[in-house]
Backbone:
């Protein structure tokens, strides 16, 4: 394993870092408070090719290797993981599903503009009664001539304010959903598609999440992605990419916690000395440093394995996702502690990191599920 970055990888990493510091850092606090996704910043990032990720250039992508892509997402997330989330979308479920299951026409129509950063997508998997248990979904699709009629609801779906289209899933048979799930690409303006964003959620506030209601929503058959009954495969085709991106975002957030804590611990004087001189504060800095180094190595290793063409890296994906997101919360907790009362104020970046870090443990497979999966692989109950 060689994680030494090439000159080109360093340049991309550095460009992302400079962009994040110059364009995102001065604005992030404000748009987080406004619960608004910064489309204008995203467009600038897209002009630098940052949305293109691992998508091949023939479909509007940047054709990056996974390690470079991971470093890019991490650097953006070090300032705002919500912008990083949007930039990871073309390389995540939305893009990967189109790449693998889409017709040439669907790729040109949906994937290429997404990878060029011209449009936004949302991915609607979670339902009010099925989050972790994806296959238990109850949204239905009924074939009617040359279209499908969808009824049901999805919940906690992100990017509702800006998305131009939605990748979502419905079953042809509610009694046996797993084998009958279909994937659909739905234009935002389709009659019967109702988007209801929530407000004031714990974290991830710039990502407008909410309910997607489907009421006799008619979708042309040409917008079905993959074959009938192939929907669960479509939904699961990008779990490794999704987990890699979430791990990279969590490492970026954890690093931001450490950066802020080191700065504050050097400046804040208590009992006549910088708090960084107290061993118990140093202990927190050590925990953070060790956690971040471990999480970053697991994340880079996953990216590196994908670059080697390794298949069956689900265990590594679970490890990277779980360790990186647990580390992010530990780092955020320590960061607030080190900042004392100031860490509890709305304007302290660490209070935002703290709110966001908790959410990381729930999305992209909650961490109890990853913990079980890792043990299942170790025990041989499950093959990668
Ligand atoms: C800010 C935010 C943005 C989101 N964006 C999207 C989006 O864009 N698209 C989308 O489809 N979804 C999205 N989600 C939903 C997210 O993917 C789900 O919340 C997640 O999959 C967990 O599902 P659930 O909330 O229904 O939890 P449940 O499945 O109800 O689980 C609840 C808890 O039960 C425990 N548990 C469940 N199963 C097991 C198990 N097998 N073993 C041990 N413990 C278990 C865990 O502690 C878990 O946290 C988002 C969520 C949030 C908070």
Residues:
């Amino acid at each position: 394993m060689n994680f030494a970055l090439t000159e080109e990888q360093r340049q991309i990493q550095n460009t992302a870092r400079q962009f994040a510091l110059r364009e995102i850092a001065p604005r992030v606090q404000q748009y987080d408070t406004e619960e608004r996704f910064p489309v204008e910043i995203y467009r600038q990032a897209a002009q630098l090719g940052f949305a293109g990720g691992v998508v091949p250039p023939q479909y509007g992508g940047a054709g990056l290797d996974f390690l470079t892509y991971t470093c890019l997402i991490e650097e953006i997330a070090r300032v705002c993981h919500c912008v990083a989330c949007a930039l990871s979308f073309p390389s995540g479920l939305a893009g990967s599903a189109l790449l693998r299951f889409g017709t040439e026409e669907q790729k040109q129509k949906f994937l290429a503009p997404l990878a060029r950063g011209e449009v936004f997508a949302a991915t609607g998997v979670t339902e009010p009664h099925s989050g972790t248990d994806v296959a238990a979904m109850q949204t239905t699709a009924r074939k009617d001539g040359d279209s499908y009629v969808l009824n049901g609801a999805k919940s906690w779906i992100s990017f509702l304010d800006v998305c131009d289209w939605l990748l979502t899933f419905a079953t042809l048979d509610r009694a046996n959903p797993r084998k009958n799930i279909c994937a659909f690409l739905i234009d935002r303006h389709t009659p019967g598609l109702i988007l209801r964003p929530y407000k004031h959620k714990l974290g991830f506030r710039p990502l407008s999440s909410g309910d997607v209601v489907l009421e006799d929503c008619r979708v042309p058959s040409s917008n079905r992605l993959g074959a009938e009954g192939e929907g669960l495969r479509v939904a699961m085709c990008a779990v490794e990419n999704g987990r890699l991106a979430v791990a990279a975002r969590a490492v970026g957030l954890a690093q931001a916690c450490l950066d802020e804590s080191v700065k504050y611990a050097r400046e804040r004087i208590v009992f006549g000395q910088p708090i960084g001189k107290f061993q118990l504060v140093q202990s927190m800095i050590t925990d953070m440093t060790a956690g971040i180094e471990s999480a970053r190595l697991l994340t880079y290793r996953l990216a590196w394995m994908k670059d080697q063409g390794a298949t069956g890296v689900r265990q590594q994906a679970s490890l990277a996702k779980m360790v990186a997101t647990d580390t992010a919360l530990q780092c955020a907790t320590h960061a607030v502690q080190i900042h004392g009362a100031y860490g509890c104020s709305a304007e302290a970046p660490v209070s935002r990191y703290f709110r966001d870090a908790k959410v990381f443990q729930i999305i992209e497979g909650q961490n109890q599920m990853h913990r079980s999966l890792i043990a299942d692989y170790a025990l041989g109950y499950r093959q990668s």
User: Anything to note?
Assistant: The chain is about 50% helix and 15% strand. Residues 123-126, 131-132, 156-158, 201, 204, 209, 359, 362-363, 366, 368-369, 372 surround flavin-adenine dinucleotide (CB under 6 Å).
